[in-house]
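2024-03-11 09:14:02 INFO worker-7 job=invfold-0412 stage=load source=structure_tokens
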């Protein structure tokens, strides 16, 4: 078997994070997810960071995600030299970039992160198109669960099942419960993943937000 064989297994690369994530901590959960935007392992220093990474990886327009990017040097209000390492830097389709810090809501104010962000925006206006903080108020359990389903469906992608669903949708109009589209298949697993794949590709769009995907109604997005 050679590297030219499409079935040749190539393991994911090591993380390119600017600092090593220690797996030992008495105050937070540490772990890794496969960063499918660059085929490398991505480390996280808390459950909240892992949840954010899962949601970001499932975003249909995210093309490159870097955890713990190179530190940014800036100066505080007293003129002291400081460094800051964002938790994630995400590039989206079209070139737009966003730098993210992930903080528990209860620690947001005392962390002083918003003041640091203001200074970094002023001193490094081209670092990212946008700099934001995400907390557990914005990263819901439903979002995380839905993102996990999408990422798993990508791994189980079946082109034949996807095309079969497309053929059904070509003669359909309006809104349909998720389960009714799955029921078009003899094998529930095939239908379930095909529906998720078309949601991922934005050929189906959830009508209701903030609910588990399999409990939503879906709108068929016809090609322009």
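2024-03-11 09:14:09 INFO worker-7 stage=emit residues=224
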């Amino acid at each position: 078997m050679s590297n030219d064989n499409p079935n040749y297994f190539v393991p994911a690369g090591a993380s390119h994070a600017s600092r090593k994530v220690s797996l030992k901590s008495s105050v937070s959960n540490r772990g890794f997810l496969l960063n499918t935007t660059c085929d490398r392992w991505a480390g996280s220093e808390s459950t909240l960071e892992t949840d954010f990474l899962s949601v970001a990886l499932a975003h249909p327009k995210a093309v490159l995600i870097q955890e713990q990017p190179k530190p940014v040097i800036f100066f505080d209000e007293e003129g002291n030299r400081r460094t800051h390492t964002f938790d994630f830097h995400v590039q989206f389709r079209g070139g737009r970039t966003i730098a993210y810090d992930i903080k528990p809501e209860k620690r947001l104010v005392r962390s002083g992160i918003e003041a640091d962000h203001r200074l970094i925006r002023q001193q490094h206006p081209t670092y990212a198109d946008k700099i934001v903080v995400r907390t557990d108020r914005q990263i819901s359990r439903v979002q995380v669960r839905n993102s996990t389903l999408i990422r798993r469906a990508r791994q189980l992608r079946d082109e034949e099942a996807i095309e079969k669903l497309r053929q059904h949708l070509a003669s359909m109009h309006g809104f349909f419960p998720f389960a009714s589209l799955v029921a078009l298949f003899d094998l529930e697993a095939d239908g379930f993943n095909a529906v998720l794949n078309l949601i991922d590709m934005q050929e189906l769009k959830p009508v209701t937000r903030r609910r588990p995907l399999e409990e939503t109604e879906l709108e068929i997005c016809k090609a322009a």
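2024-03-11 09:14:09 INFO worker-7 stage=report msg="The first strand starts at residue 31 and ends at 35."
2024-03-11 09:14:10 INFO worker-7 job finished
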